[in-house]
């Protein structure tokens, strides 16, 4: 195990003075230290459909693999180590605080022993942290993650978003955003501070650059108000004011919420937005009241917006979504619908998969319903309070 500790340490120290594109070479050096043939990181694309090898110059070629139906994809989807080739190949999830980045392939002539497995898992964790903090320093990682060309409006939105998933002992939150290469006005945000989880989901009217710019103002006004210490009511007022000042003829619907981590008290304002769904034991308990205020940007929030409250129980989940989720239509014009949404999420959670995987599968179900051609942005955010 001493060799394993040294391999992790060398990777971290070497990465401090290396560009991100050196990661494949650093992993091969770590492989040599562990006595394995190769360590290769595979990164998930934006649509979470495939895993693409992150290879350096002169690396032996490796194929991109689909997430569904492969051993590497199973490690990604379930977040567990998966063996292949009689145990001589190992796939380990690369994730950072619940945010799934890809998988690490450990390739050896003989099945790795417990020490190599532990060191490889530590390396996967180190790679996750390095990629999370350094991927913006080089375009190579971005290009690798793109399954097709991304529209400028979508580029704006993706650069606003936090990681799709965050999980901690008390709480977890996981989001989706589709169509991932051509989204316009949908976005979400979250942050943990002072014993509270703050989260919001936005749907800017329109499409394209105008919609993404509108939502950019709303989301950053939300972050500014939150970071200035404004309470929920004043945050809603501030977002409304800034959107109205910059786009007097447009508006944004949204839900702005906060959850106390110790008590599980959820408070929210739904500004012209669909209500959330409260799930307990993977069954719908009720629809959360909505809307409780006018859409943001109308400049007509004079009195205090109504704050709704819900006392959660341990292991409760709340699903927030934009109307593009339930209004996705099949070729016969049938909506995906609220009931189908509730049924799908409940059944998937019953399979004991993670919130992140639940949301990935939800995206696939919505796209299949509308034959891969969404007519509107579809965004959802799943909150899980453990009560711990």
TrEMBL record:
InterPro entries: Bact_Sigma-Reg, PPM-type-like_dom_sf, PPM-type_phosphatase-like_dom
Key words of the record: Hydrolase
Stretches assigned to the PPM-type phosphatase domain: 170-385
Gene3D superfamilies: PPM-type phosphatase domain
Matching SUPFAM superfamilies: GAF domain-like, PP2C-like
Pfam families (alphabetical): SpoIIE (PF07228)
Molecular-function GO term, any one: phosphatase activity
Domain of life per record: Bacteria
Protein name: PPM-type phosphatase domain-containing protein
Organism name: Virgisporangium aliadipatigenens
Upper lineage: Bacteria, Bacillati, Actinomycetota, Actinomycetes, Micromonosporales
């Amino acid at each position: 195990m001493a060799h394993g500790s040294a391999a992790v340490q060398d990777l971290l120290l070497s990465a401090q003075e290396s560009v991100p594109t050196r990661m494949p070479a650093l992993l091969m050096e770590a492989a040599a230290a562990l006595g394995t043939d190769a360590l290769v990181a595979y990164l998930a694309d934006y649509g979470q459909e495939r895993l693409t090898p992150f290879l350096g110059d002169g690396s032996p070629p490796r194929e991109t693999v689909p997430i569904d139906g492969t051993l590497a994809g199973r490690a990604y989807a379930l977040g567990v180590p998966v063996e292949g080739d009689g145990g001589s190949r190992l796939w380990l999830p690369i994730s950072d605080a619940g945010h799934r980045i890809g998988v690490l392939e450990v390739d050896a002539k003989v099945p790795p022993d417990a020490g190599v497995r532990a060191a490889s898992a530590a390396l996967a964790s180190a790679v996750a942290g390095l990629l999370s903090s350094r991927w913006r320093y080089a375009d190579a990682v971005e290009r690798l993650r793109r399954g097709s060309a991304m529209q400028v409006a979508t580029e704006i939105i993706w650069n606003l978003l936090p990681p799709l998933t965050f999980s901690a002992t008390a709480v977890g939150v996981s989001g989706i955003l589709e169509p991932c290469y051509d989204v316009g006005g949908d976005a979400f945000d979250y942050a943990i501070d002072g014993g509270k989880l703050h989260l919001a989901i936005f749907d800017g009217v329109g499409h394209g650059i105008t919609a993404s710019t509108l939502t950019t103002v709303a989301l950053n006004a939300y972050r500014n108000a939150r970071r200035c210490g404004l309470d929920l009511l004043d945050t809603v007022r501030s977002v409304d004011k800034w959107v109205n000042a910059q786009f007097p003829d447009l508006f944004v619907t949204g839900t702005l919420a906060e959850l106390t981590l110790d008590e599980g008290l959820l408070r929210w304002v739904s500004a012209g937005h669909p209500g959330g769904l409260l799930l307990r034991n993977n069954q719908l308990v009720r629809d959360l009241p909505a809307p409780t205020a006018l859409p943001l940007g109308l400049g007509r929030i004079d009195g205090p917006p109504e704050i709704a409250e819900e006392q959660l129980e341990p292991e409760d989940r709340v699903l927030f979504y934009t109307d593009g989720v339930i209004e996705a239509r099949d070729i016969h014009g049938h909506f995906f619908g609220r009931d189908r949404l509730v049924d799908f999420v409940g059944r998937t959670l019953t399979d004991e998969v993670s919130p992140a995987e639940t949301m990935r599968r939800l995206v696939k179900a919505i796209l299949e319903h509308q034959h891969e051609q969404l007519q509107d942005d579809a965004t959802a955010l799943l909150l899980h309070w453990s009560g711990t």
